[in-house]
Amino acid sequence: MDPDAPPAADPPENLRRVAVASFIGTAIEFYDFYIYGTAAALVLNQAFFPTLSPLNATLASFSTYAVAFVARPLGSVLFGHFGDRVGRKSVLVASLLMMGLATALVGLLPGYASWGVWAPVLLVLLRFVQGLGLGGEWGGAALLAVEHAPPGRRGLYAAFPQLGPSVGFFAATGAFWLLSAALDDTAFRTWGWRIPFLFSFVLVGVGLFVRLKISETPVFARVAAAREASWVPFVEVLRRHPRELLLGAGGMVVAYGLFYTATTYCLAYATAELGMDRGVVLALSLVACLFLAAGTWVAATRSDSVGRRTLVLAGTGLAGLWGLVLFPLLDTAQPVLVALALGVALFLMGVVYGPMGAYLPELFPARVRYSGASLAYSLGGVLGGAVTPLVATRLQASFGSASVGWYVAAMAVVSVLCVLALPETRDRELGA
Taking a C-beta distance cutoff of 8 angstroms, is the pair 95, 140 a contact? Predict the structure, then answer.
C-alpha cells in the first residue's frame, strides 16, 4: 500500500453501511444519555434525594446530571488516544458498551429508601461512566462518516451521526410519554421510570451488531500505513492546536445551552413551576424534537454548498435572539405557544449543530483528529450543557424566567465570537 496515495473511494454499498452505522450507534448512545436527563427532570429528585427540599432536590438531581459532562472530556482524551492510534472502529465498539451497560445499571439501582446514601453515590458513579462513554462516541461517529465521505459531500454524510441526538431524544421522550400515559403517578415513580433504562440492554446488542460490520476509515488506514499516528494525541492537540480546540469548544456552547434549556430545564420548569401536565409537556417535547431533526438535516446537508461557518453563525445569532422570546412564550402555559417556543429553539439548535459534524473534524489534522474534535465537542458540553439546568434553576428562582433567556443570549454571543475567529473548512483535504 502506497502511504502517499489518496484514500481509496468507498463503494456505494459500504457508504450506505457507514451512514447507517454512524446514525444508529449515535442514536442509541444519545438515547441512553437523554433518558437520564428526562428522569432527572421528572423523578430522580424524589427517588434519590427525598430528604431535601423540593428546590434543593431538583438542584441535586441536575447536579448528578452534570457529572457526565465533567466526565465527557476525560472520555474524549481516553477514547481519542486510542482512536487516533488504534483506529476509529474498535473504539466506537468500546464506547457503545460502556454507555449502554452503565445506563442499564441505573435501571437496576435501588433508590434512597432501600440503600440510603449509597444509592445517590452509585447513581453519580454510573452517570460518570455514561459521560466517559459519550465522550468517546461523538468524535468516532463523526469521523466514521466524514472520513468515508466522497469529496464535497462530507456535510451530507456527517448529517447522519448528527441526527442521532434528535432520534435518541425523540425515543427517550417518547418512552417516558408512553409510560406517563399508561401508568398512574405512583407506579411511574416507583418502577415505571426504570423501563427505558433497562431497554438499553437490547439496544447495546443492536448497536454492536451494526458496528461490527463496518470497515476502518480510509483516512486512518493511510495514517496507520505511513506510521504517522501521534504518540500522545491529547498532548499534541494542546501544543499545536490549542486555538482550534478552544474556539471549537466555544462555538458549541450555544448549541448545548439552548438544547438543555429547551429540554431538561424547561421540562422541569413547565411541570413544577407552571403546573402543566407531565404528559402534555412530554408530547410537546416530541413535537419540538422533529424541528431539531429538520434543522440538523437542512443545515448539515446545505453546509457542503453554503459553508459550515456561515450556517453556524446564522443559527447562533438567531438562537441568541430566540432566547429572549423563549420564556415569555413558555410562561403562557398554552400548549400551542409552548410548542412554538420549544420547536423554534430546537430548530435553531439544529442549524448550529448540524454543520458541526463536519466542521469540528475538519479543524484538526488526521493524526489527532479523533482527540481534537472529540475534546472540542465535549468541552463545549461542559461550558454550555453541564451547568445550564443548574444556572437556569437558580436564575429563575432569584430573578424570574426572563433572566434564563438572557443567559441563553449571552451564550450565543460567546459562540458567535468564537466562530468568527475560525476559518471556513469545507474545502480542506482530510488526509493531511
Answer: yes
3-state secondary structure of 307: coil
Alpha-carbon torsion, ordered 261, 264, 268, 269, to 10 deg? 10
The DSSP 8-state label assigned to residue 271 in this structure reads I
- Give counts: helices (H), strands (E), the chain: 20, 0
Rounded to whole angstroms, how far apart are CA atoms 80 and 86?
Answer: 10
CA dist., res. 38 & res. 45, Å (int): 11
Phi, psi of 370 (to 5 degrees): -60, -50
SS3 (DSSP) at 6: coil
pTM, to two decimals: 0.89
Of the two residues 12 and 375, the one the predictor is more confident about is 375
Q: Which residue type sits at 188?
A: F
**Residue ranges of the alpha helices (H) in 109-241?**
112-115, 118-146, 154-182, 185-190, 195-198, 200-211, 218-225, 233-240
Q: Tell me the three cell numbers of residue 145.
A: 462518516
Q: What digits encode the pLDDT tens for the residues 377-413?
A: 999 988 888 788 888 989 999 999 999 999 999 999 9
- Residue given cell 466506537 in the structure block: 92
Length of the chain: 432
